[in-house]
Amino acid sequence: MSTPPEESGTGFGGGEPDLRLAGLAVATWLTALAGLHIGAATVLLVAAVAAVFCVAGSLHLLGLLGRPGGRSRRHGWIAVAVGLGVVCGGTVGAARLAVRDAAALRTLAEQRASVSAELVVREDPRPIRSTTGRPSTLLVPTELVGLRRPDGTRITGPAQVLVLAANPAWQGLLPGQRLTAQGRLDVPRGGDLTAAVLSVDGPPLRHGPPSWAQRAAGSLRAGLQRACAPLSDEQGGLLPGLVVGDTSRLLPAVEEDFRATGMTHLNAVSGLNVC
Question: At which of 206, 233, 249 does a domain end?
Fold first, then answer.
């Protein structure tokens, strides 16, 4: 004999949708997104409050703290799942934000200090529009290995640094490439995990070639770019992003449209791209 929904402990049955997993996923995503704007301390406090709520709610629904009614059993576990999502998103987000907002690197960025940075390229360099008569600027997302000031002070940490490069020697870099660059730090605009912006004028000093896997992937992306060359700027820049996640030629206006509509995941490498 099957157990009625009210006696099963979850309250789900009879065709009623189970929204616990959906609540968990949405809460995790929204909390992580909010953390990018409210900071590590605040999002960690929210996660702590949510953890207390989850414990108290679970004890109540299990009958160890009061006697839950039918409505509580039906919807209480969804609320607990949402709270658990807030705990997960807040905890992981706070850890990442603590790295982004590290005092040593933030102070140098606010001082616009000149540094020598050791970096690892994370994505293909992407050109951005520039004013007429000036060379185009390349955006190069990198991972910081360490940096050194002229006075010899060294800072290490796995922070994300966005390089703004005017030298064309940055164009051929591949993800995984290790290099050293001289430049000036600046504060990022916020809203993501970028810890600092590094503006450079000279070429990078490469430390060996990228891995064979990255070279093979670079050849594949270059071949797709050549195949898309006859297309218009919008189509030719979008197609590689949809297929292999290569957004190096994606127009800024198109990229902003994807960001505004929350569809940037379509340009991320995933199983769907492989299919």
Answer: 206
